[in-house]
Hints:
By secondary structure, the chain is mostly helical. The protein has 6 helices and no strands. It has helices at about 15-30, 50-65, 70-75, 80-100, 110-130, 135-145.
Amino acid sequence: MGSKWDIEEFTGDNDFGLWKVKMEAVLIQQKCGKSLKGKGVLPVTMSRAEKTEMVDKANSATVLCLGDKFLREVAKEPTATSMWSKFESLALRQFVKQQLYSFKIVESKAIMEQLAEFNRILDDLENIISEGYKDADVLVVYCLEGEEGDVSHFGSDAW
């Protein structure tokens, strides 16, 4: 009896951090989670055919959970490990940075909802860039600034 795990494709519009957690869980459920660490890390007790099958299963599961835009970036990678590595280092780094730099607070939206979105973007960036983002406070002020550079229109009661 098999289980079907339905996971939303990563398109770049959804949350990468949550997608990654879900994707790792799917790979574990499919009994191929260890393959993300590379063939060399797989148990020596496994035959070459078993290792190949596990890597192929992880690769196909990852491909099926990517939207077309991001699939094009990593489609030629031979393994899920190299696919994830390229995916994280190239496509997402630029995409998330673009989201971060273009983020602006809109007065007509609830401030807490917008801060949650901003924190999601920072979390995504931290997942991609291991040292995290150290200038977050400066960016919060930048995102809060209006056209005149004045943040006083938000007032202390907005927090």
